Amino acid sequence: MPAWYPVGSRPRVLINWDTFVAQGINAAWQGPFTDAVINAYTRWMNVAGVDVRPQFFGYTTQLPPTNQGDLLILMTPWHGGGAPNIATTLGGWNSIFIEFHRRSGVNGSLWNFVPWNAMPGQIDMQAVALHELGHALGLDHSASGNDAMFPFYGYPYRYGPFEGDVAPLKALYPDYQQNRLRQLRSSDGAATWVPVPNELTSHPHWHTRTNQSPGVAAFRGSGLYVLGWTHSNRIPTWLRNDGEKFLTRLWYYFGGERTVHGPAYASDDRGTVLWARVTNDDSGALRLSVSRNHGRSWFAAGLAGARTAGTPGLAWTRVAGQSCWVLVWADFNRSNDAATGQVRASTSFDDGATWSAPTVLHPTLKALSGVSVAASDTNRLMVALAFANTAGTANLNEIVTVPAAVVGQQLQASAPVFTGERTRIQPALAYDRARDTFVLAWREQNFNTTLGVAVLPPGAPAWSGRVWLLAHASHVAPALASSPELGETVLWYAHE
User: Name one GO molecular function term (predicted).
Assistant: First the structure.
């Protein structure tokens, strides 16, 4: 199929909600369905990263044919012609509409749609929207059941697109190369933030652009950071820096891999750092590397057996005097819909050489995208995610933080805390050792994608000190790190 929208365009996504209500869809689902649609095209923009970027423009009473530059979504009774289609994408150049069908065209039975994270027996509207948006961008059906563009409905679509979807889309559109890496710094416990222009953020080359979240960690005792990101062409790269000056002679490219969802880094108190990233294979395999010299050189670490469709989280702490690494991720399992999205954790007491058997962090929590984690030196950990509710529309996309501690070889959770803030991708966490506080940052899901920050002082029951960085919007999830030597917390993100 051809590209249906011009390169560089921003198709206006319009929803005719009246047509959904007319077909018996619960009127109260308007907001959750809209979130499902925006969640779906957000994943296309972050994972595929091509130069066509849909944006939600509101609600309409318009019916097909659509106007130039529009992408209309509506509901009809059925596909017709005896077809079992759940949805159909139609239209032409720069003018597309997506029809959700209320009933099967085979026997007239109602499709069991839900706008939340579906369970077996339900049809996930975000998964359907992600598939149909692929058609709207120009993709045909795939012959592989591992792809979101496979012609038969599958719950895993909500965690797409996958390699078999991304490669043909990149053949239709060039990479989006306008998201420049940017940095903010706070020296007062995350109360105020200032931009940090440096050699990287002012670099004009496309190598400093990304469509996925960056990763950053502070090296203890050195005043240095390691910063990693994925190029628009999905080549991972990293470099060492002091927050302003970058050691460009040690700017690394890992040309032998292609990665998705952004990296995670964590460092201990001895100069060792671990790096986690997700390969672009269809399984979402998670790989780890270790450096014992402040990021100058890297070697393969052990495999935790993790598979994910989002950014993982890494942290370091001490447990009964032992060095302990904690890896968290949102599980991705094509053969187990009920397990997919569960937050899982594994620990390593030998610098990543071996990992404990994965355990589920909390039985009722599923992640919309990736997961983050931060830790004190004394076995106090915090996990953060965007909530993908499986039981209704409550708290969809809400940021949930989970206090935890390592017991034996398992990460054990305390009661989750719902923050009241919402995001479509994973939030970021850091532990500020100088102030004994956790710092949380997120990309708000409003139209401006403003960055927000909050802190959790020791013993406090809830996050406080919220700061909205109104002059700083981000197209990707942020990354945080705190340096006790420099007395600061840095926040990395990417924006045009």
Answer: zinc ion binding
